[in-house]
């Protein structure tokens, strides 16, 4: 049962970190300009919306309500993740937290789809094909060619100077690099000194987090489409410092029972407090929108599907004009990303 200290309004519902465990808190970045416009984002370096900034601040307020101090914060190299981490830590009163940036936590590279409207692309190429690109574990979208408006911006970006930049990725491709990053993170967590905070924060993206949770919880490839990661809502896993195994669950914390609970299911525990609980629940429900997240076949309305004649389209047929659309959408919804630099004016002059 959740209890609240009447003197300071702080929630005491967060379970303490057991001995010999380290708690890793994950969070997807706040809403971005492309999230709001329902545009494929990938490695395009778009900014947070005002709502995204509020989401980051609210997450920080929740951290503060539980008196959380983080040993370290890991972020991808994309601005929306970095700014979310910075805003949340500042709101939590722990802006001094050491930061480490890792490109392997970046969002999945969406190839030629980056910058395109999800709904318009489905209308042009067929919803079945687009749903396969979005929900399949193995399927890769068409590659990003040299003509794509994001190609040179990404490939000439100094932050990726030592990175073999992909030109498209499946969820499986994304998962391979994220798992490598995770192993480095857990190794660092295990090596923490006794007096260090038992908390680490990781701020990343929808697909990089889905890929990692799929690995941590042994979720089958044909079931991962059920997993929704809402923007700006933290969740955690407890890591056994002796084995690096993930042991978080909603049952009492003993190793034997935890090892058999939630296998193949999402075992992360969302963090909230009494003031943010309703808001967080509403955002989690909103994440179930079928065009923001793929659903099981029996949850997809027939009106979303295309006829057999549309399924005959080749994967590149109908791509004419999409490069121009990507350029228009990038200029319209995130002009700073088109220029290859963050939206400084937005963060300096919020309106």
What does this structure look like?
This protein is of the alpha/beta class and 351 residues long. Helix content is 36%, strand content 8%. It is built from 14 helices and 6 strands. It has helices at residues 33-37, 50-65, 79-91, 118-125, 127-135, 151-155, 171-190, 206-216, 255-258, 277-286, 308-311, 322-333, 335-339, 344-348; strands at 21-28, 72-75, 99-101, 199-204, 235-240, 269-270. The chain has a 6-stranded mixed beta sheet with strand order 3-2-4-1-5-6. Helix 4 (118-125) crosses helix 5. The model is unreliable at 1-12, 250-262, 290-315 and 342-351 (pLDDT under 50).
Topology:
Layout: E1 21-28, H1 33-37, H2 50-65, E2 72-75, H3 79-91, E3 99-101, H4 118-125, H5 127-135, H6 151-155, H7 171-190, E4 199-204, H8 206-216, E5 235-240, H9 255-258, E6 269-270, H10 277-286, H11 308-311, H12 322-333, H13 335-339, H14 344-348
Helix pairs in contact: 2-3, 4-5, 7-8
Mean pLDDT: 81
Main sheet summary: 6 strands, mixed
Distance N terminus to C terminus?
39 Å
Assign an overall shape. globular
Number of helix segments? 14
Q: For the largest beta sheet, what order do the strands appear in spatially?
A: 3-2-4-1-5-6
What's the gyration radius in Å?
20 Å
